[in-house]
Specification:
Number of strands: 11
Largest sheet: 6 strands, mixed
Length: about 325
Amino acid sequence: MLTRRQLIVSTGAMAATLAMPNISRAAPIPMRLAHAANEIHPGHIAAVEFKKALEALAPGAIDITIFPNRQLGEDKQNLESAMAGTNELCGCSGVLFPLVTGRQALDAYQLPFLIRDYDHFAKLATGDIGQKVLDDLAPAGLVGLQTTDIGQRHFLSATKVVKSVPDFAGLKTRILPVPLHKAIWEGVGTAPVGLPYGEVYGALETKVIDAVEINVSSMLSENLWEVGKNFTLTGHYPWHNVIAMNKAVFDGLPAELQAAVREAGKQSVAPTLEYTRNQDFSGRDELKAKGVTFHELENLAEMQQKVAPIVETWSAKDPLIAEFVTAARGLT
């Protein structure tokens, strides 16, 4: 017969739920979860769904206060705060983790044209390989709890219309200043410009940049439709968001609460992805009504071919990335 402890570890959500009423605390443990997104953005929904799931699994045990809208800093600052323990939790762009932590594996989600759609993403993020990638954050002092897609990326231009690969040539395009994005957008032919997320609107408005690779959710939440009217559908990679907890904080929790925190991360993926998917497709109609013109890239296969070598280059950087690529290609 399984012991109670074994049951908690082995039976996932049900065991965590059964364990929680037996936790006796004088007061809930206060925790802060900081992120950079607006309240209608899927990055905020990811935090809300995580908090909701945890409250259901461990009622009254942990009191999470969510700080959206860059209240406590941009993505990079929030991630650094979680690593330092200044904040207990962060929700940050997955591609920032390799830059800040030195752990490369999370780059795998944004290898160009590897992940096909939201369903493909869900299978990877909630499968064994997704958990391995999250677990790889431990040496950086973090416990990865959730990876979700907050919007497939496309291309917004405030100047010329982009309908074919040659149209990308020389466009000053905002990227997150990380090696993977630099390699991709130089490969496409643009002139990448590294800028924080909060500076994109002003840079497009003043023509400091010509374009940005972006998703529908950010177009809406940051009002980028006011300064960019040409949206080219490329679907080059998802924008993955990761919720992580400071490892020392996590290690200090009782085993039952650790199980609940991990389970809350897993349970919050599906509703966040559903929100993201719905906002992506319904948001396109909203953007069209605001004057944004949508374009199909005439020679998408040429764009894919230009950046294809990057997948193999990054696979050689980390065995987990290579394993992720194999898993992604093996899923139908």
